[in-house]
């Protein structure tokens, strides 16, 4: 997930680098720049869809390695790019690989961790994501002083640091016991379960866990619904499980999380600070990097807040905070054209960019 966070932030520095913009004929062409930024998310979407079938056929480990291999191809194409079509293709391929990985990793983590550790590991996954985002912002800021092509080629190529870590570790990690049981490999599943729990293979606890997994897999096969049945709200043979409602609640929350504007901020914060607020390129990168640290620090505050306020209350508070931040930013930038003190009005909006990230922190921790 650190690689995912890194990818989310790397392009924000790339699209404010003059060498990149001039080389690819993008200087002043906001339409192509926005399309280039968005095409990565399109790749992620289709990668996540592909993970549905690939993940079940090849297993969690191989699927992660497939996604990582696709990402490495996209990284090479982008880092070596000398033309606009090349960078477009690289962004799409990179998104495909990342979509596969980010759709597979949380499932694999859940299926190979103790029940008592799952919540903590999900929170850790979120922190690693934000840490990757913060790391690339400081890399972007530091390399802005170097100038030339290294200012954008190196941050893109540095993704190989995380890719190599995945190649070096994933083959040695355990496969999902649930996936193994679903494919008739009970002995392997039992061995992995015993290793994960540090118990003998025929310990009563391991036997019980295996029986629960086998029952769950069998139940899903016998009572499965097609996507058409789910979308039409059809009930299973055992009664109404409200599958459609649960799907909309889970997927809808994730959709709203993205629709609230986090990717706009991730891709365009330096651009907005330069074009709308009037900051220099260096200062915009520096504030973006400082903001990423604030983003990381306040993510830790979300955990105790969930216990105090509750998930629903924290979600509403987070959404209200984001809406308020965007409203004030819009108003301040609108009046920044005032000839008397417009510059000061625009700069006062900077605090509310920080507020937006702090508010968003509480939402993602709440969903996790």
TrEMBL record:
| Iron-sulfur in keyword set | no
Domain Major facilitator superfamily (MFS) profile: residue ranges: 1-368
Kindly list the places in or outside the cell where this protein is found, as annotated in its UniProt entry. Answer: Membrane
Which family does the similarity line name? Answer: Belongs to the major facilitator superfamily. Sugar transporter (TC 2.A.1.1) family.
Q: What is this protein called?
A: Putative mfs sugar protein
Gene3D superfamilies registered for this protein in UniProt: MFS general substrate transporter like domains
What keywords appear on the UniProt entry? Membrane, Transmembrane, Transmembrane helix, Transport
Q: How does it sit in the membrane?
A: Multi-pass membrane protein
Predominant localisation class: membrane
Which superkingdom is the protein from? Eukaryota
Spell out the GO cellular component terms annotated for this protein, sorted alphabetically and separated by semicolons. membrane
Q: Does the keyword Signal apply?
A: no
A Pfam family the protein falls into:
Sugar_tr
Could you cite one Gene Ontology molecular function of this protein?
A: carbohydrate:proton symporter activity
By its UniProt entry, which InterPro entries does this protein fall under? MFS_dom, MFS_sugar_transport-like, MFS_Sugar_Transporters, MFS_trans_sf, Sugar/inositol_transpt, Sugar_transporter_CS
State the SUPFAM superfamilies in the record: MFS general substrate transporter
**What are the transmembrane regions?**
33-52, 64-82, 88-109, 121-139, 151-170, 286-306, 312-333
